[in-house]
Amino acid sequence: MTVITLSGYRKTVKWIRAFFFFGLFAAAGLLLLLGIGLLSMKLLGKPEVAVPQSTLYFASDGQVIGENHAGEKRYWVSLDEVSPHLVEATLAVEDKKFFEHHGFDIKRIAGAALADIKAMAMVQGASTITQQYARNLYLTHDKTWKRKILEAVYTLRIEMSYSKEEILEGYLNTIYYGHGAYGIEAASQFYFGKKASELTLAEASMLAGIPKGPSIYSPLASLSKAKERQGVILREMEKGGAITSAQRQSAYATALHVVGEHPHEDAETAPYFRNAVQRILADKLGMDEQTIALGGLRIYTTLNTEHQKAAEEAVKQVISEESDIQPAFVAISPNTHYVTALVGGKDFTESSYNRAVQAVRQPGSTFKPLLYYAALENGFTPATRLKSEKTTFEYDNGHGIYKPSNFNHRYADEDITMEQALAVSDNIYAVKTNLFLKPETLVDTAKEFGISTPLKPVPSLALGTSGVRVLDMVNAYATIANGGQYTEPVFITRVEDVDGNVIYEHAADEEPRFDKKQTAVLTHMMTGMFDETLSSYASVTGASIAKNMTRPYAGKSGSTAYDYWMIGFTPQLAAGIWTGYDNGQEITKAEEKGYAKKVWVQFMEQAHTGQPVKYFPKPKGVLALDVNPENGKLATEHCPVSRKMYFVEGTEPEEYCTDHLPEEKEMKKQKNEDSWLKRLLPFY
């Protein structure tokens, strides 16, 4: 039994009194601080509702080539001009107690805080509409405590200064709905081609789900995810009594026609190029969509407006409007790897799918230069001979059989040089080379050249049967043109924030991945596709456009039943184009098969107008020798055809061609006559 003494009792009373007064003073202090804080906020007045600044895109010459739609694509509407369905859907999914709280939902905050404490990180949000509005107007979307505190301050100021209706109206007019649509009116026009006041329940519930993640829940990004999100919103509306079960089911079952087009679309420069720039800002520089679109950024790009104009004109003039063939075109400056022009399709307003950076298609024979670089590194020379004949290849220890064929089934039926094999695009030579090196060698070499798509180490890889991206292929050719100096394609040189601070600047980081001498040899080999002295059993593949060329070019064409390519370069510029159907349809019309080469040569000639004619460099240690291209021997004055070939010093042929000497001709003639007589003897 505990006995409480009088002195003990007095001490207990004393401590209780002390705690009481301490608590009283603390509460009074907190109330005083809160009062001062609220008074200060009141004295500050209404926080300004500032319209975010547009992001501007600049070409390499400083010309503005695009502007994110801060004005044209945000159409402010009053709350009574918004469909009640949209208002109810937004409240149901974003803030059910919006009209009851004073900027903060204490129950949601407590739940989120508990989740954050358990995870030891900010994993769950509990933002009300007012908090989101404050964040959209004044703050970043970073999950930091500093931002949370500032957000709370701005939330209180907004709640003290504006009515609930004004806050909701502002929120609906500033939230981002994806695809450049800011605010509900722009979103309604873009997705459904109608005013926000005309939105049906089905349309409103679809739109209300997009702001959570425009790149995820937009019906143009993923219809399945958009429908899933719509279902969540309709169920929340039903739970809150805004709609009935029958209305929910009807709305969800309604098939919606998504327009996906802004009214009065501006004809801005290089939309596919800017689309690629935006992807880089998001994926590589880590910027969120709203900052990119309305952060007041100044983005300085590598675009050459003259090159872009030449590319777009070539596509428009060559590819028939009636044709469904789509192009993907890229031009890159070899010295810097700057992307100077890009076309991702015939018409951005009809299809924003960027084929130049997104599509993965088989490159056909444009893949062969990568193979022949690997061959040069492994002992081959332009004069190395292999037999061109109809061949069945066995691989994988006899478990695999591959039967390639040459174009139109034309074979030399004798040994040919690698120089000629590349010029006429002999498939048998290529597959033999690939198997000799082992297909894994080609896979590794292609990756070194920047090919980022998966490649299968099979014999047919030499003929370009694994899908690649146009951007990667053109950059690989630019690497060859640059003497083996590799870097990733560059789209952006500098990014400044709204205050002019540089937040990103490109730093040149070229890497000498390939041998300068061997790339010079390969480059000269690649000029052979335009040299008709290399035609024999088959024509060189560039013969049809050689007459249109006014300067030296190196390149390679390629084709499959579904894809036609042409990639090539000068010392100043590399460019490449793919043409084909989006649905993988076979290309059967002769005219459509010629689109790629015609667009390429027209662009290259136009892009080089006024530029000096430059010849490909021959580094020290590389020899240029006259060679008979048919037998790979040093040519003499008696050879009917010869071509200048490049060799790394020490690998050049030493034997002179004697096939065409006068005495050799007589000997061959006599030998043929003797053989003819021998064949006749049995008949006598």
UniProtKB/TrEMBL annotation:
An example molecular function term from Gene Ontology annotations: serine-type D-Ala-D-Ala carboxypeptidase activity
Gene3D superfamilies cross-referenced by the UniProt entry: Biosynthetic peptidoglycan transglycosylase-like, DD-peptidase/beta-lactamase superfamily
Pfam name, any one: Transgly
Reaction catalyzed: [GlcNAc-(1->4)-Mur2Ac(oyl-L-Ala-gamma-D-Glu-L-Lys-D-Ala-D-Ala)](n)-di-trans,octa-cis-undecaprenyl diphosphate + beta-D-GlcNAc-(1->4)-Mur2Ac(oyl-L-Ala-gamma-D-Glu-L-Lys-D-Ala-D-Ala)-di-trans,octa-cis-undecaprenyl diphosphate = [GlcNAc-(1->4)-Mur2Ac(oyl-L-Ala-gamma-D-Glu-L-Lys-D-Ala-D-Ala)](n+1)-di-trans,octa-cis-undecaprenyl diphosphate + di-trans,octa-cis-undecaprenyl diphosphate + H(+); Preferential cleavage: (Ac)2-L-Lys-D-Ala-|-D-Ala. Also transpeptidation of peptidyl-alanyl moieties that are N-acyl substituents of D-alanine
UniProt GO cellular component terms: outer membrane-bounded periplasmic space; plasma membrane
Record's keyword terms, sorted: Carboxypeptidase, Cell membrane, Cell shape, Cell wall biogenesis/degradation, Glycosyltransferase, Hydrolase, Membrane, Multifunctional enzyme, Peptidoglycan synthesis, Protease, Transferase, Transmembrane, Transmembrane helix
Sequence ranges assigned to domain Penicillin-binding protein transpeptidase in this UniProt record: 328-586
Compartment annotation: Cell membrane
Chief subcellular location: membrane
All copies of domain Glycosyl transferase family, residue ranges: 62-237
Family classification: In the C-terminal section; belongs to the transpeptidase family. In the N-terminal section; belongs to the glycosyltransferase 51 family.
Family matches, as NCBIfam families: PBP_1a_fam
Protein name from the UniProt record: Multimodular transpeptidase-transglycosylase
Organism of provenance: Bacillus thermotolerans (Quasibacillus thermotolerans)
